[in-house]
Model the fold of this input.
Amino acid sequence: MQYQEDKMKLIVITPETIYKEEPHAINRLFETGLYSLHLRKPGTSQKEMADLLKDIELIYRKRVIIHDHFELTSLYGLKGIHLNKRNSIIPAKMDISSISCSCHSFEEVKLASKLDYVFLSPVFDSISKPGYNQAFSDMQLKKAQSEGIINSHVIALGGISPVTIPLAAGYGFRGVAVLGSLWQRFETDRDVSALIRRFKELKSICEKL
Done:
């Protein structure tokens, strides 16, 4: 399925734990029209990550961004890397088509302007991390939008749900990254079909914005 670039981008971040049903779920998400997947598995060994990547269909790997074990990017033909506190250095002599990072302030967003895109969080109260609450007021977000700090290269992260996606669009974000509202129930029920239904709801909302 071809993604329409003018639509609100919907990026999926994986849960930290690897589940045996997860490769099938990831392939189904891409089959259903997922724009990009951020493979975030802190604490996972290189072999465990490689084994997971082997089960992702070859055609979809070019839409995967990896948060750890950057050396796997070239080996598996991944889209790119995401810089973070664990891995903050861009590897030398690697052909990487996309580099992104996580930001928690508007100053960090400005400093990362040369990257392909950034996550800004938490824009709303986190679903996957209880107590990790919204870091920016309505006034601050609107001011950042008017100053061009929030633009098409800034992805809203934190508390992304069917309710908050339109709010994010109103602040000027042209993309959202989802974790808790998609995966939280999957971590207990392992129901891939239910996961896909939740994804379709989120995707439908993004396509209208």
About this structure: Residues 122 and 158 are 4 Å apart (CA to CA). The mean pLDDT is 94. The chain is about 35% helix and 15% strand.
